[in-house]
């Protein structure tokens, strides 16, 4: 399954959308598709922040 959270965050708008999705699924139970999505989303958010928020 390919979700938007698996895509690289390239713009400020992408970043804001990713943060919104993060807040929607932050409490996803372990072992659910949302929990897997959350892990990937966090990686992408961290990568964007390292590149653009220093």
Main β sheet profile: none
Name the beta content range: under 5%
Helix content: 55-70%
Number of domains: 1
**Series of secondary-structure elements, N-terminal to C-terminal:** HH
Global geometry: elongated
Task: Compute the average pLDDT.
Answer: 90
Low-pLDDT windows of residues: none
Explain what the structure shows:
The protein is mainly alpha-helical and 54 residues long. It has one domain. 63% of the residues lie in helices and 0% in strands. It is built from two helices and no strands. It has helices at residues 12-25, 33-52. The longest helix has 20 residues, at 33-52.
Briefly say what this structure is.
With about 55 residues, this protein is mainly alpha-helical. The chain has helices at about 10-25, 35-50.
Secondary-structure map:
Blueprint: H1 12-25, H2 33-52
Which short descriptors sum up this protein?
single chain, 2 helices, 54 residues, 63% helix, 0% strand, mainly alpha
């Amino acid at each position: 399954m390919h979700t938007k959270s698996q895509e690289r965050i390239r713009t400020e708008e992408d970043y804001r959308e990713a943060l919104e999705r993060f807040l929607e699924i932050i409490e996803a139970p372990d072992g659910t598709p949302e929990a897997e999505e959350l892990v990937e989303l966090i990686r992408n958010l961290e990568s964007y922040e390292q590149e653009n928020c220093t």
